[in-house]
Amino acid sequence: MKKIMALFLFMGLFAFPAQAQLDNYKYFVVPKRFDAFKEINQYQSSTLVKFLLTKYGFETVYADAIPEELFLDKCLGLNSQLEDNSTYLQTVVAIVFNDCRGQEVFRTQEGRSKSKEFKEAYSDAIQEAMQSMALITHNYQGSAQQPYEGAADTATKKTVDTIPEADVEVASTEPEVMAVASEAEPLAIEVGKTVSEEVKPSESNVVYWEQLVSNSGFILTHPEKEVTWVIMKTSSKEVFMAVSTTIQGVAFKVKKGWRLEYYLGDVLQVEHLQLGDQ
Questions:
Q1: Which 8-state DSSP code applies to residue 53?
Q2: CA proximity to 177, closest of 103, 108, 100, 232
Q3: Counts for the chain of helices (H) and strands (E), in that order
Q4: Which residues contact 164 (CB under 8 A, 6 or more apart)?
Q5: What residues contact 122, with CB distance under 8 A and at least 6 apart?
Q6: CA–CA separation, 163 vs 39, rounded Å?
Q7: How many CB atoms lie within 10 A of CB 189?
Q8: Residues 126-167: pLDDT tens digits?
Q9: Strands (DSSP E) along the chain, which ranges?
Q10: Least reliable range by pLDDT among 70-74, 195-199, 210-214
Q11: What phi-psi label fits residue 13: left (phi over 0), alpha (psi between -120 and 50 degrees) or beta?
Q12: Residues 6+ apart with CB under 8 A from 67
C-alpha cells in the first residue's frame, strides 16, 4: 500500500510542473509522418498519437491542417515527434514536444513493448508512453513566448504530405474523436421511430477501415472519412459500445467488419464498417 501511495504521489509531482509548461501552448501539432518512420502514418503512429492527445484534452491538429491562428503564429503550438529507441529485443518510444524554435518543452515517459509484430509493438509502446499526458489537465493560459519573427512568412507555401488512397496504415484525415466512455451521454432509444435504410459498402472501389487494437477494445480509422470510431467492450461478448466525437451507439462483430447502430435525431442509423485484411 505504501508503495502504491508513493507511486501516485510521484505521478502527481510529475504532472504539476508539466502542466504549467504545457498550459503556455494552445495547439499540439502531429505530423502525418514522424521522422522515425519512412512511410506516412506508419504503424498508425500519427493517428494514434493525435487520437490520444485529443482524448486527454489537448487541442490537436495535423501539421498540414493547422488553423489560421497557428499559421500566423507558430509559437502558439508545440510540435510532436516520436523518438524511437528500439532495440532488437523490444520496441521503445517516447513522444517529444518542441516549441516553435525547436527547443524541447516536454517529453513523455518511454513506452515499451516486446511484441514481435511491429504494428502491435508500436501501438502498445505509444499508448504506454502517452500515459504521461493522461496525468495532465491542460488549460491554455496564453503563450509565454513572443511570436517568432517571420513565422507566417516561412509557411507561405506549404509542402503537404498526402496519404495515398490505398495501402495506408492509418487514416489521412484524422477522425476528430474522442469521447471517453465515461463522458459520453447515454443513448436514448425511443421505440417506434423511423429507421433509416441500412448502409452497406458497395463491392467496387471499397476503401477499407483500419482496425487498431486498444486496451479497452478497438479503434477504427478510415483514410477518407473524418471520423474515428472507438469500439469498447461491454459485459456481453456479443455487444460493444461504439463512440465517435458526437455519436454514441452499439456495435456488433460481423464477418469482415462491424455493424453499427446509432441514432441521428429520431432516426435509427445502421452502418457496416468493412475491414481490410487483418
A1: H
A2: 232
A3: 5, 13
A4: 40
A5: 43, 44, 45, 91, 93, 113
A6: 9
A7: 12
A8: 999 999 888 888 889 875 455 555 444 444 444 444 444 434
A9: 27-30, 60-62, 77-84, 91-98, 104-107, 111-113, 210-213, 217-221, 229-233, 240-243, 248-254, 257-264, 267-274
A10: 195-199
A11: alpha
A12: 27, 61
More confident residue, 187 or 112: 112
CB-based contact 40:155 (threshold 8 Å): no
Q: Residue 242 forms beta bridges with which residues? A: 231, 249
Q: Considering the domain 2-155, what is its CATH architecture? A: 3-Layer(aba) Sandwich (3.40)
- Measured between alpha carbons, how far is residue 178 from residues 66, 181, 248 in Å? 18, 9, 11
> What is the amino acid identity at position 137?
T
Residue ranges covered by each domain of the chain:
2-155, 175-278
3-state secondary structure of 259: strand
